Structures are given as C-alpha cells and as structure tokens.
Amino acid sequence: MKKIISILLVIVCLFSAVACKPQEQVEVKDETFSGEYLLYNGATDYAVVVPEQANSNEILALDEFTSLFSEATGINLPVVKDSGLTFNEESKYISIGNTTLLDSSKIIIEDEVKVDNGMAIKTKGKTLFFIGGGEYGVVYAVYEFLFRTLNFEQYYIDCYALDKCVTEIPLMNYNVIDYPDIPMYCNFPRFLDMNPLAALRMRAPYRSSKFLGAVGGRISHMSLVYMNETVVEGHENYWLSEDKTQLCYTARGNEEEYDLMIEAYCNSIKDAIKNNPGASIYNTSNADERTACTCETCMKEFNEYGKRHSAAYIKFINIAADRIKDWMENDTEGKQYSNPNFRLVVTAYNLYENPPVVYDQKTKQYLPIKEDVVFSDNVMLEYAPIDADYSHSFTHENNLIYFDYLKQWSVLTDEIFMFIYATNFHNFMYPYDNFDSMQLNYQLFYDYNTMMLVDESQNGNDAGMTGWHILKSFLSCNYGWDVYANQNELIDRFFKGYFLDAADDMLKFFNGYRAWSAYQKNVLCPGIGDIYFSVAKREYWPKSILEEWYGYVNDALKKIEKYKVQAPETYEMLYKHITQERAFLDYALCTLYKTELGSDYRLYADALIEGVTLNGIENVAEGSEINLDSFR
After folding, report:
1. How is domain 2-179 classified at the CATH fold level?
2. Cα separation, 302 vs 308, whole angstroms
3. pTM of the entire predicted model
4. N or C, fewer C-beta in 10 Å, the chain?
C-alpha cells in the first residue's frame, strides 16, 4: 500500500507509526486479528451506523471517518440510522456514538471513557464500536482508529498524513481506552483559532475564548475591565489602589464600601454570564502591572498573611463567587444561568503569585495561613509564573521557587489552570528552546491535577511563526493529550510528514540549532531562558553557524525541486514550510551582519521579504510589527 500525506487531498507521505500511553493510562487488550476484515481486496461488507438523533459531534465523527476512509481506500461506506437495529454477533457494522447497537451489545464502558473527551474503540462479534464521552470523545475514537490503521495524523493547517490506495484492513479485537491527560488544553497559536478542524484533529479544539467568559472581547487581566471607570465612579478612593493600577481588595477597610464593591463586581460578572452562554469560567486576573494596593488596610492584610498580596484577593473572590452561586441557585433571574461548572479564576501572577500558606515543621507540609484563604468550591486557580525559565523544567534549580509555589497553591485548591510561556516575547524571529523542558513540565502539571492549560507562544502572529514554533505546537498538542508521548518519535514523524523529501536536511538544521542552544544555555548566555532576554546579539549567533544552517536549508530546497512538475501543490506547501523556518536565518543575518554581507545582503533581504510575505509573519516581537521597508 502507498502512503501519502494530504494537502487539500494531494501530497506524499513517508512513514508509519503507532503510539500509546503507558499501561496505567491506556488499556489495550487482545488487539489480535479477529479473523474478519473491514476491507478485503478493495471491497467491504460493512456499513456505518449512527444514532437516529445523532448529535453534532457524532455527525462530525461520521463525516471525518467516512471522508478519510474514502480518501484512503476509494470506498464510500454506506451509512444507516440505528432505528430498529439491535446488536447481533454476525452483523457487520461500524457503530459511531450512542447507537442502539451499543445499547444492546452489553459492552462495558469504563469510567475513563465517560470523562470529558475520553474515548474507546471496541470490537464485539463482527461489529466495531467508536465510543466517546464528553464533547469530542467519539471524534477522537475515530481519529485514534485512523491513526492505528491508516497512519492518519495532522501536523499543521495544510498538512496531514494518510495512507492511500489501501485495499485491506483487518478487523482487530480492539479494546482501546484513552482520555486526555489535561482535560482542557489550549494551544495558543492563532493558526488553530483560524482552523477549528485542524485544531480538533490535533486534539486541541479548545480556545481560551470558548471556555472563558469574555467582556468586550477581553478574557485576561480582567479586574479593571469588570471594575471599569464607569463602575467605580465615585468610589475610586476606596475601590482602586492608590496609584489606580489595581483594585484595592479591602476597600480601605470600609465595610460599607467593601460590600458595595463586591456587589458591583458581582453585577459585572453577572452581565458577563448573560453575554457568554457557552462559557462557565470567568477570569478575575489583575491588570498586567507589577503592582498591588499598598493602602494601610491592604498592608495590614499583607503582613497578617505572611507578606502575601494574594490573601486579600482570594478572600474577595471567594465572597464574590459564593454570592454569584447563590444568585444562580435562588434568584429567579439567576436560575436561568445556573451552571454547576461555574468558576471564578484567581490568577497567581506578578505580585499576586505568592500564596498565603505557611510551612509546618512538625508535619513537613504547607498549610493555609488561615482557613478563609482556602478556595471556595466554585473558585479555581490560574498559575502564570511569568518569570520562570521555560528553557528548563520546573524541577530545575532555576525554577525551584516556581515549583514550590505550585506545591503551595495546591494546598488551597485542587483545581488548577496553568498559563505558561513558550517564546521570547521581545524576539519572535529567533527560536526559543524549551523542547526538552516542555514535556517535563506537562508531566509535572499533570501530576498536580491541572484541569486547563494555555501554552502561550507568539501572540500576534497567526500562521506566521518561524523558529520551529510549528513543530512546538505539534508537540504541545500531543503532550496535552498524552504527557508521556515519545518525543523522539513525535519529532521524527513531524519532520517526515511536514517536510517530506526535505526532512533529513531540515532535521540537520533543527539538530544543529539544538546543539548550539545547549552551548548557549550552558556557556554563552545562561539567562537565555528568560522570555524577555536580549537574545539578538552577534556573540550568540556567529555568522558561520547561521551560514552552516542556511546550507541545510538550501539542500532541503533542492530536494523538493522535483515536485514543481510532479505535484505543484505539494511543492508550494513544502516551499512555504521550508522558507518559514529560513526566515529566522534571513532575519538574523540581515540584522546582525548587514555590513559583512556586502552585496550578498540583497539576496538575504529579498529572501526574508519573500518568506515573511509568503508565510504571513506579522510581528517581530510582542506588539511590534515587522517593517519590511527597512529591508528593501
């Protein structure tokens, strides 16, 4: 059988692989040949069965299965509704979702399958069942089956692998169970926002804007959005910090103003709830400033709770969350918006990062300083350690304080939302090497019961990201589902699927960068893991090193020349993929070595302009657009 990769239906693929989690996370029993075939000699006796009243995700699972199956085999499977059907050992069906076949089969569905987006593939008799829990579980069951049998895997918005010209698919005795390690994983790159099907296929369908309630399009740094100038008018001297950059969570110690402030805050949240019917979680994060209120009452609270600004903040949000919960349960209007999953999010960020706990020498454990800072049932934590060194894991000596904070926060709540970082925000064009630490951190967050995770990379660039960020997105999507996925296998599959014939040369470029990055971290610039580090300096990027990597890119471009005639769409895709990574080299050479390049400068500058334009690279740093005129 011939393997190919599809870009809008046409592209060549060169690999096959199957991955699964450790035994304690995925149960695979008797995946032996059943004696039957789903497809044999290019023909099939099987039909697909869906519920008579199929929900939207069962319909999506059906569409994805039948279309990809057809693309791989040339067979259009017949589809029937389950009305009047019952399970029979001899019937040849592929059942999708909660069909009458599943109900009458007496198949035991494990609890792991019933969790959000848990899934199972099971064989009973001659029938194959795709079963799922939560929103997307049944779709993931389809993708897992297609991965196992037809090597289906999505790498990027324009690129996925799928076997072609398949004439034989054996029916195995499947009993496969899997579920996401991090239930709500949100990969930040906007190319997933723009391409929801690609995001779903990469098992990262959640966007922050989907599960977080928005106000005026905002979902973060919300405190002064809820309590804007109109809301606080007349109460500024009580409700705002003395420098007006944050809220005063004690209202200067005035009980009447404190109660009014909470009431106003709750009213703003209620308005957000009414305007976000699909959301259940509301961020209360403070303004993006390294400040906190220092009024007399706040400083008294600060000192009383172990010099933690977070204490007054937690107490305030606990009260607000309880009032909104009461509104949902007991108020006529509020009952319309009753939501058992409603949460307010306390954000541990900047001066609010340090939790109000104390270490008990006797028990060798952290304990809340007082019980009133333990989170209410409908309050959860967002931990966003912006000063961590993400080029190292949280267990590395550079990050032990942030790891310790995570331990401390887990004393106050068992519902954790991690917000982490994966780029240099002052230098988007340069790579940021967190390839080794990323998976270790995901595993750590999994151990601490992380329910949601946002991995922020280049906010401001849509599809246009250089510096291996497309690979990073693929890896982080896989880690969100399986924190113990084999990194080397993932990287190998990505390069073979994303670069095809150019894979070896681009891998030389990547591995060369990784080796140089290790030297940077250990010798040249140990602080390079700071997400605001000034990395754009000659001493960190010698011209000879950049030119060596450029040679690998040129070799890669030569390898894809044959596609110009054989498969122009494939050539166009591969050319974009390669030049997207080349853009970093063009930018570094042009900005660091313009004088030394002499007449060659024009070649690199033109290549940069082409790569940036072709791939939609918009920003060179957070909030800073690239100025191509300066390179013309």
Report:
1. Chitobiase; domain 2 (3.30.379)
2. 5
3. 0.91
4. C
